[in-house]
Amino acid sequence: ILNGIDDDVWDPARDPHLVAPYTASTLDRRRANRRALQGDFGLPQSDTAFLLGVVSRLTDQKGIDLILGALRHAPADWQCVILGSGDPTFEHAVRELAAARPEHVACHIAYDTRLSHRLFAAVDAFLMPSRFEPCGLSQLYSQRYGAVPIVRRTGGLADSVQDLDAPRPTGVVFDPPTVDALWAALGRAATLLPNKRKWRAVMRNGMQADHSWTHSAREYLALYRALKP
Questions:
Q1: What would you report as the CA-atom Rg of the chain, rounded to the nearest whole angstrom?
Q2: Is 111 helix (H, G, I), strand (E, B) or coil?
Q3: Span 48-69, pLDDT tens digits
Q4: Stated pTM of the model
């Protein structure tokens, strides 16, 4: 049974942290949030860059080394915003990459609730290549906000994100915990992105999925009732 999210706090239609609240039927309003996030992080204003986001503890478990490895070779028309803190070695590596590629990678080494909401509401895709993940919450937040998750097929990520090949896709799923596998997943996403109709279908599928605690609570009740003698 998956974790649930508070769908009142995590609601892009009523989120006070956003420049432009929106719904699955008003996705064009995300453009204002995108520009606001680029401004927050000092990235060039661009409506066409493939904008990626990371909100995470910066640890080996979360696959931060895979993200850094992929971003070092990312094309000039990609941007990535990284928000989080953790292992000092990874914090240093993130800062170094942002300094080396200031027009493409930006970071804030801390956890910031306001910025996390603004990030989910702005990015095209959300990176979560965890080595293991009992459930995870960030991939649920990203789907709720229409940020297409790119995740490794493990634990709760495998249970909550449906790959592009699925009948009702909500993200991109890959298997080996390697830079090459993440890079291939990013390539699949970047190839689909220009097809606005198909990309938005994936966004809407995620936004319409029920990952609320109400849904999880019903599953727990059903389990308890099944176990009752």
A1: 17
A2: coil
A3: 999 999 999 999 999 999 999 9
A4: 0.96
